[in-house]
Amino acid sequence: MKHLKLMILAADSQSALKAQxxxxxxxxxxxxxxxxxERQHGRNTVKSNNSIDDIPAVREVLKESELLxxxxxxxxxxxxxxxxxxxxxxxxxMLPMVMDQHDVEQYVEMVAGRAKVCIxxxxxxxxxxxxxILAVPGVxxxxxxxxDLHISMGLTFMFELLxxxxxxxxxxxxxxxxxxxxxxxxARIGEGDLPSDNILGEHVRLGSTSVILSRTFKGVVGVxxxxxxxxxxxxxxxxxxxxxEIDLWTEAEHMxxxxxxxxxxxxxxxxxxxx
Length: 275
Description:
Blueprint: E1 5-9, H1 13-21, E2 26-30, H2 36-39, H3 55-61, E3 66-70, H4 78-87, E4 92-95, H5 101-111, E5 116-121, H6 124-128, H7 130-134, E6 141-144, H8 146-152, H9 160-163, H10 166-177, E7 181-186, H11 196-206, E8 210-213, E9 220-221, E10 228-229, H12 232-246, H13 251-273
Parallel strand pairs: 1-2, 1-8, 2-3, 3-4, 4-5, 5-6, 6-7, 7-8
Antiparallel strand pairs: 9-10
Helix pairs in contact: 1-3, 11-13
């Protein structure tokens, strides 16, 4: 099993330090805002209000975890944004909403080897041009953005991409090209419309190397007298233990897991369509 890097969104130094102490591999600092409200209007998604000038405070506390900064899509001031993020200490820069290989070439040229480059595959156009994107020198890894990709493709539920084989299509191409890749997010173990256990099974089967820990890993669970704060370190350890268990699955167990995913996705789609 390849090591699965766990990433979590953090907007300040306190949450970044907590993530590092809890064993999270990468702190994800999000700068993307261009076009996001229009694409995801009315959807229950996380939208960033982070400032690039707050990166140094986050960088200062990170001694073990990597700092990944998602910039905006290619725009008029991309070079200045990239230069500043690198100067402030980003280890990895992530480019969202890629349309073609030319976007990737521009980005790689602007980064100029000063940080790792992670390219997001989250548009139908990028999927159609995947071979050309994979051929661009200077890309270190890909990340499949299930939310925007399912919107771009006109699908009902983002995990249709997993149950219908589109993630596997991208994974196969990445594996053949020797390109590390990750996809989507997971809820805490035992939770989620599509249980995190099932999703982790596909990360292992497909050879994924990164996943985002969702907002269920933060805050408080329960209500009133039963309310309790989530212990991030405990929840991260649960993920690691589950991954070790999944690594022992037989091929038959992986195939059974795929069936469970397809069934769960169909249930969620039915609920969405009947609202």
